[in-house]
Amino acid sequence: MTTYLWKILSSYAVVSPVLSGSPLKRLYKSVNLKVTFLNAEDVAEVAFYFGSDVSRAIHVLSALSKSSWVAKRDIYKRWGWSEKEVSTAFRLQPMCMGLSEKNIMSTMEFLVNKMGYNPLLISEMPMLLLHSLEKRTIPRFSVLQVLISNGLVEEEAHKMTTLLNMPEKDFLRSVCTESIFLKCGSGSKVSATEMKASSLTAILAKSGIGASTAKVFTRYGAKVIIADVQDDLGATICSENQDIHFIHCDVTQENDVKNAVDTAVDKFGKLDIMFNNAAISERPTTSFLTIDKDDFKKVFDVNVYGGFFGAKHAARYGIRVNCISPHGVATPPVKSVVGIDLSKFEEIVSESANLKGVVLKAEDVAEAAVYLGSDESRYISGLNLIVDGGYSTTSTAFRMAVKAHFSN
């Protein structure tokens, strides 16, 4: 057996002639072998370079029978490896021969058939074989697939290998944070919210922006409750998306709002986000001089107290409080207010902003809500996020555009 071990170690360039007894004894003690091939008398015949790779090689070989070595070698050869490739892989990472035959086969099958690796490339990067298939390789590959499909990571074998091999902390920082933030800055709809599959829960929604926001949140894996007085509209939205649920809610009634929050917690186990969007936006039917007190109070009850009740009852679950202030969005309620075609309204709004050629949509407001509700904004609270294409810097332009339209 000693001769066999000597030949194996020599073929992988990990042994040298004995120079002295003392270094050999120190090395033999350092690797703490449960020897199967060597015994106390035989050990004097072989000396090993002092190093971790040699220690691993000895550990692997001392636990292997010759038949087991041959069986594992043959599995690699089935994937196109030659004796040279097997030798290279063992020299670079001895533990690739310490894996079980089942583990070797399943890992090679996933790397080659699922990830598209060239089998010969794996022999040059045998560290890929040592990662847990269930705990690292498959989960990271799933993340990388999403990143590659959205242009966040280049589909290059060496880069993929680096990402699979790097420690978890570095992977999360360089891939699931930096890459995603860079892409989100250029308008991608991929967010770390999607990576984490967060269970974002309740939204108070109405038609227009509220309905769009509910749908966008589900795109990121959220479970959503929409709460509104429009029962028919709520039923229609729910019929189109199984991740959206409806509950009747009059936001002017505090108990209704409390019930909406409690329903979300009972159904999903927690409340992550409250999107207060219910509001009255109707075209005035009378002048300020003749407006009725009850009509004025109704606007305050919905637009002010409705938001207050939502924040009050969501505060029990430690939410942050932020605000979104969009420019004009062409929604059905807006059409009833301005009395013009929505495409014409979009044209007027676009002309008043600085971002020429970009039209503000309800989905843009929804994406802003996703950001403020995700962990990416975990240190943001008390912010008024203005989504207006630069209108705030040229606010007189909107008045001029509207005046020009109605003067024609």
From TrEMBL:
Q: Does the keyword Transit peptide apply?
A: yes
Q: Where does the signal sequence lie?
A: none
Q: Which residues cross the membrane?
A: none
* GO MF, any single term: oxidoreductase activity
Read off the InterPro entries from this record: MTERF (IPR003690), MTERF_sf (IPR038538), NAD(P)-bd_dom_sf (IPR036291), SDR_fam (IPR002347)
- Would the keyword Protein biosynthesis be found if you checked this record's keyword annotation? no
Give GO BP annotations, semicolon-separated. DNA-templated transcription termination
Keywords (alphabetical) are: Oxidoreductase, Transcription, Transcription regulation, Transcription termination, Transit peptide
Q: Name one Pfam family in it.
A: mTERF
The record's comment on protein family reads: Belongs to the short-chain dehydrogenases/reductases (SDR) family.
Q: Which PANTHER family match?
A: 3-OXOACYL-(ACYL-CARRIER-PROTEIN) REDUCTASE (AFU_ORTHOLOGUE AFUA_6G11210), SECOISOLARICIRESINOL DEHYDROGENASE-LIKE ISOFORM X1
Q: What is this protein called?
A: Uncharacterized protein
Please report the organism this UniProt entry assigns to the protein.
Coptis chinensis
The organism that produces this protein has a lineage beginning with:
Eukaryota, Viridiplantae, Streptophyta, Embryophyta, Tracheophyta
